[in-house]
Amino acid sequence: MSIQKDIQQLLQKYEEGTCTPEESLQLQQWLDGLATRGKEYVFTADERRSSRRRMLKNVQAGKRAGVIINIRQWAIKTAAAAAVVVMLTAGGWWYQRAQFITISSNAALAVTRVVLPDSSVVWLNRNTAITYHKGFALNRRVQLLQGEVFFDVKKDAQHPFVIQSGDIYTTVKGTSFSVAKNHYTNDVKVTVVTGRVAISKGSDTLAVLTPGKRLRYVEEKEKAGVDEASPAEANAWVKGDALLQHAGIMEVASWLHQQYNIPVENLHRGNDIDFYLSFSKGITLQDAIKIINLVGAKHQVTFFVEQNKVVIK
């Protein structure tokens, strides 16, 4: 099946409100790719006629119809996305359908700050995406699709604030904390700065965290552990810095992918190496790897760039 046909089917599902969060993210990544390459998606005559028929149907049903999406150097002109609204944010963009809103940060830009409908504030690190329900004020639930977020949650005792990252649910009523999802392993890390945070999987409570505490959930082992962590690990990246405390190889790999949008291949056996790393704002990939290798030397692990990817041996 052609890429154009795949995208048209995703647009059709998006209009109907049947896209899964993963399919919505796939569509969004395709759009970001167009933005980077400065290209335009061109619909065939049949697709345009089909779009017009759907557009007319929507108008007759009293729905919003007809959008023109212009972001940076590209455009999509189609009524197949009639129920979609796209807007730029500072460092990313969001789009909306009847039920869900998805926010994504751009890999090429810095941190994205967004104020949610309940006045809670969320910061998205690079290569991060979240989605939440349009009726957020009554259903304060956010799904972390990928990357890392820092929340400053407005207190509302009647409506708990829930963040889903895979099978892990983090529940708060008013606090500040970060949630990170490892790009390669889907491991989840939650670090608390203020307040109390309850973390669960299914009906099981994994931990209740207080300030300075951190939970790591290892997906492969289905195991959670709690330790201490500096608040800087949770939010230093909001200002451009970074702190990794007691980080394994794959956590470092995920950080490299997130910060520099570069794939990482791990050829080193084992993930039990303990890295403590601090990076200043604007550090280059080459300088970051130098620092990582200084720390990793005693463990005989080396990071290097080869053929547009980072290799770990």
Describe what you observe in this structure:
InterPro entries: FecR, Ferrdict_sens_TM. Residues 112-197 form the FecR protein domain. One of its GO terms (molecular function) is sigma factor antagonist activity. The chain crosses the membrane at residues 74-95. By secondary structure, the protein is of the alpha+beta class. Among the domains are: 1-80, no CATH class; 241-313, Phage tail protein beta-alpha-beta fold, CATH 3.55.50.30. It has helices at 3-16, 21-37, 45-60, 231-235, 249-260, 285-296; strands at 67-71, 74-78, 85-89, 92-96, 100-105, 112-115, 121-124, 129-133, 141-152, 161-165, 168-172, 176-181, 188-194, 197-201, 204-209, 213-218, 223-228, 242-247, 264-266, 275-279, 303-305, 310-312. The protein has a 15-stranded mixed beta sheet that branches. Strands 19-22-21 form a 3-stranded mixed beta sheet. Helix 1 (3-16) crosses helix 2 (21-37). The longest helix is centred in the first third of the chain and has 17 residues, at 21-37. It is globular. Mean pLDDT is 78; it is low at 34-43 and 58-98.
